[in-house]
Every structure is written in structure tokens, then in C-alpha cells.
From TrEMBL:
This is Small conductance mechanosensitive channel. It holds the Pfam family MS_channel_2nd. The keyword Cell membrane applies. Belongs to the MscS (TC 1.A.23) family.
Amino acid sequence: MLLSSFFQFNDQFIGIGRFWISIEKLQGFLFKILNVVFIIVIMFIMVKLGTKFIDKFIKKQSKMKVSLDVKKASTLGTLLKSILRYTVYFFGVASILTQIVGPISLTFAGIGGVAIGFAAQNFVKDIINGFFILFEDQFAVGDYIDIEDKSGIVEGIGLRLTKIRDFNGDLHLIPNGNINTVTNHSRGSIRVLVDVDIAREEDIDNVVDILNSICENFKNNDNMVDGPRVIGVTAIKEFGFTIRVVGRAKPMTQWEAENALRKEIKDNLDLHKIKVPYPKRVVIKSDSLNNV
């Protein structure tokens, strides 16, 4: 009884409380809702299938006669996925708007196009710069880079954004259009530098011979590309002197190589009883002063 009093029906209208709705309009509204849901489902399916296709293509390209290296392939895959999402979302949203507001007149479309054009200037700039980053091979996913005051490992290069994660774990999202100067630390070998402080009373030639022997053995380290070698005395300080050891390591292994080299040097200096510099103080007791 309650429902029958709330809903009323006749041949052309449905009554809901005090309001009457045309059955034809209600059918049209429900049809639009179904179309919108259908478009959203199609968008979701296209993105999922397209992403799987791109992943398979990137994996298979390594077996082709002409193939990209792993970093470049990963970067290309990320960019293709970004292009896929933006394309599907753009046409999907346009189709949904058409369902909701109906066909847009040419005049309204022209005005809207001008407005969108002004608003999309930065977006277009981001996209164009993103393509230049990829095709000029400025950096790739996995590279360690500096972008102005931000530095970290590249996690993704999209159509509009570049994602880098710093060593604190923070993720920085940088619009491609804002990327003007890039320092890439992952191209070519990276310098390894260790400064060794030695006490003033030690024999320099003896210490250099010990360090040369250490460097000769350390050349077999998997991370090293060149050296290391002893440069010589680079500083004379109040309590001792500094001998510099340099070499070159594979990208992203320089810190591990430096740590291993420091440990090797420390262990060998201890073995040869080579002293490190430290402040020395002469303590004169008051009794000694009285005797003088």
C-alpha cells in the first residue's frame, strides 16, 4: 500500500510523490546512464588490454635483431602506456559528455576549443618536451639524475610527468615542460675517490707503496672500470698529510666501490701499523713546574 501510494503510473507518465516524470524522458535518461557505464567499462578494458600488449611487446623486442637496451625499453614502455591512457581517457570523456549534453554545436565547440587551447598550453609543452627527452635519450628509467634542485632515480617517464625518487624515499613528480637542465650520473663510468689521512711521522714513500699494492689488488673488483691508482699527496695538515686514491666504477656502484676500497685500505694500514693523524697534547704537571 505504501509503494502504491508513493508511485503512480499512467500511459505516459510516472508519478513519484508529487512529481510526474515522462516515461519517454525516463527511458532516455536510463539509456544515457547505460551508455556512460558501457563507455567506462570499454575504457577500462582498452587500458588493461593495451597495457598487457605493450608489456609483451617490450619483452619480445629484446629477442629482435634490432633491440633497445633494458633501460630504454622500459622507458619506451612507460611512455607508450602513458600515451594509451591519455588517448583512451580523452575520447572516453568526450563520448560521455556527448551522451550527457548531446551533440555540441560548432559555435560552442569553437569557443570551447579556444578556451581549452589557452588552458592546455602547459600540457602541450609537457608532451613535446617528453618526446624530446625520449628521442634525444636524455635519461631513462633507472638512471640517477639531477633536475635543478631535485635528484634521485628515475622511476617513470610519462607523456606529461617524469617521476624521480630520492634517497630519502620521497617521490618527485616533475612536469616535462619544466625540465631544462639535466645532469645524468648514469652515463659512462663514475669517479671513485678516497682520501687517506696519515700521521706526520710516517714515511710517505712507504705508505704510497702500500697503497699501490692495495690498488693493484682492488682492480679485480667487479665494480671497477679503471684503476684505482694513487695520485699522491694532496694536502699537508697540522697533524699529518693526505694521500688521494682515485678510480672509475660502473654507474650506480661508485658508493659500494668506495666503501669497499676504504675498508681494504684501513685493514692493510692496520696490518702494517701505519698511524692516522690525531691531536697530540703535552701535559705538564704542577710538580714538574715547581722543580724547574
